[in-house]
């Protein structure tokens, strides 16, 4: 019997598998989908600056710890598999295109500075110099001002998922995918095994990392974990050579350059439940957004489109901790828009809990069953996306 079974092969499940295998435990990942068919594969791979500052809340501390670990994991992946997940500092430009956006961005700039991050404010002229591809948009008067975060990173979830998919079997992790888990066999307060069709998989301990679908396991792991599914759509276009120097953001919409000339255009935040796939109006809007900002992109070939379902949580923090019902059960889900960024710190924290090591991060704020007060973060972010769509007609 393996030491730990992990339900889910997204970035959270795979990162936990890697961390546990690195600590000498035997691990089996059981999932409905292979890594290249998960929400994680569908992500954009944007990592905002992640400073550690005295007033940091638990989410920011998790991101800061994760950010440091990503640099190490990036080097390990490259050394062990030759795969470069593309982690690179490319800087983020945030554009204000209307009065309300200008006010919001000024406040955000002040907030980044208070956290000790370098943050430059650019007038339209300086935007042209920093990002020549935006010259036409600046000339047309579209850009009222911009904030530049030079320390913003991007990586490629596609490459990283492929890397992890190849790396884990070499590290002794057994990967089983292709069939949804359809029943769980309990022995009192312990989860003994999971069943996928006719196959039964045993493990001494279990981690639930099924992203938005974690609700399906509420009967065994406890009803406290109820991620809210939030769909995000992406369009990928291809130019013969790179035209963008930075990640460009307007509100929650963005353009992410890849070194090979591809540009990722994203993303929607939709309350459409578990409905997969892309929609013609959303993709058309994203393309209009890209063409309006960077006219060269109108000549780019639309290579493909896709979507993923983010797992939202009410207070914006993931659930990382022990199951309320299972004595050998752990939960790691609800990372919403930051699952890639927070994956490494999540893996370390769960591995600390499983191996009874002293956690480097205080697990209390992430505990399963914590009370929720205040407004629902996932719902508020979707509302902001809807408001932006109404306010900005690309
Ligand atoms: C468009 C988009 C852009 C994003 N951009 C970023 C970004 O720039 N930066 C960032 O940090 N994050 C980003 N995210 C968020 C990030 O992708 C998610 O937070 C992260 O992928 C969640 O990972 P996960 O492992 O929890 O879930 P998933 O990747 O959804 O994996 C869930 C796993 O559970 C398995 N599963 C589900 N049901 C069952 C079942 N019944 N039986 C067996 N297995 C099951 C699935 O097969 C899958 O393997 C983005 C998301 C989207 C959609």
Question: What would you note in describing this structure?
Answer:
The protein is α+β, with helices and mostly antiparallel strands. The chain folds into 2 domains: 215 residues, FAD/NAD(P)-binding domain, CATH 3.50.50.60; 161 residues, D-Amino Acid Oxidase, subunit A, domain 2 (D-Amino Acid Oxidase, Chain A, domain 2, 2-Layer Sandwich), CATH 3.30.9. The protein contains 11 helices and 19 strands. The strands form 3 sheets. Strands 1, 2, 9, 10, 11, 12, 18 and 19 form an 8-stranded mixed beta sheet that branches. Strands 6-7-5-14-15-16-13-17 form an 8-stranded mixed beta sheet, with helices on both faces. The chain is globular. The model has no long low-confidence stretch (mean pLDDT 93). The structure holds flavin-adenine dinucleotide. Flavin-adenine dinucleotide (FAD) binds next to α1, α2, β13, β17 and α10.
Outline:
With 394 residues, the chain is an alpha+beta fold. It folds into two domains: 2-85 and 156-227 and 315-373, FAD/NAD(P)-binding domain (3-Layer(bba) Sandwich); 89-153 and 229-312 and 380-391, D-Amino Acid Oxidase, Chain A, domain 2, CATH 3.30.9.10.
The tally of strands reads: 19
Oligomer: single chain
Strand content: 25-35%
Give the N-to-C terminal Cα separation. Answer: 56 Å
Attached small molecules = flavin-adenine dinucleotide
CATH names the topology of the largest domain as FAD/NAD(P)-binding domain
Total number of domains:
2
In the predicted model, the low-confidence regions spanning at least 5 consecutive residues are: none
- Give average pLDDT, whole number: 93
Q: Based on CA inertia axes, which overall geometry fits?
A: globular
CATH architecture grouping of the largest domain: 3-Layer(bba) Sandwich
The topology string of helices and strands comes to: EHEHEHEEHEHHEEHEEEEHEEEEHEEEHH
Q: Note the total helix count.
A: 11
Helicity level: 25-40%
SS-based structural class?
alpha+beta
CATH class type of the largest domain: Alpha Beta
Calculate Rg over CA atoms.
21 Å
State the fourth-level CATH superfamily of the largest domain.
FAD/NAD(P)-binding domain
